[in-house]
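hey can u check if this looks right to u? its 209 residues, i copy pasted from the old doc so theres a chance i mangled smth
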Amino acid sequence: MNHSGLRGKPFILRQKYEKMSIMERSSKITLAIILGTIVIVSSYTYFVTQKSAQTALNISEAGASLITEQGESAYTDINGEPVAIDENLGKVLVVNSWASWCPACANELPNLAKLGEEFKNKNVKVLAINRAEPKSTASAFLTSVSAVAGLQLVMDPDDKFYSSIDGYAMPETIFYDPQGNIILHKRGQMTYQEMRVQTESMVNQSAEE
């Protein structure tokens, strides 16, 4: 009986297996390269998009008022510690100007605190920026104002914010959308209902975009 044909088959099968293994390894390497390229391109695109969005926010109306430039006094908290309030860019912002000599501010600050509490989980930030008063003056005034716990109180040594919005009344409140655009500039006191309706409208509008 001729066994030559049988003896040759294991070698042929081994070659075929080795060829398939090489093709599989090559396919895996190619797939890994493709996936790696997709990840790199996606990461770069995300980085560029985020950087462009941040640049747009920095030069927006909100950015111009909330970012302090070199040579300008930094915004601080009530204790004089610097605060980067521009970190809130990208949210619905309600920013109010207040001072101890403004009777309406004593009524409005508690409402702002209440507003911030109600919308704190809806990408909304409420800021109350003092008009360049000494810490002692602002602190003494706040002791006579009830229910402002939780409201971010900001000191503005140069009165930068008020100047940047061309303020001329007191109090003044600005509503910015997440893109940093002014949606409403209210000169004079607002009721809580007015604040709430405006904020809710902006939150709903933001959710639809």
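The longest strand covers residues 92-98.
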